[in-house]
Amino acid sequence: MPDEEKKPACRDTPCEGCSRRSFTRIGVGSIAVAGAGSAVFGYEFLSPNALYEPSPIINAGKPDRYAQGSLTPDPQNGIYIVHGPEGIYTLTAVCTHLGCLTAWKPELGIIACPCHGSKFHPDGVKIEGPAPRPLQWLKTWVDDDGNLMVDRSEPLERREFVRV
Ligand code: FES
Question: Mean pLDDT score of the chain, rounded to an integer?
Answer without folding.
Answer: 88
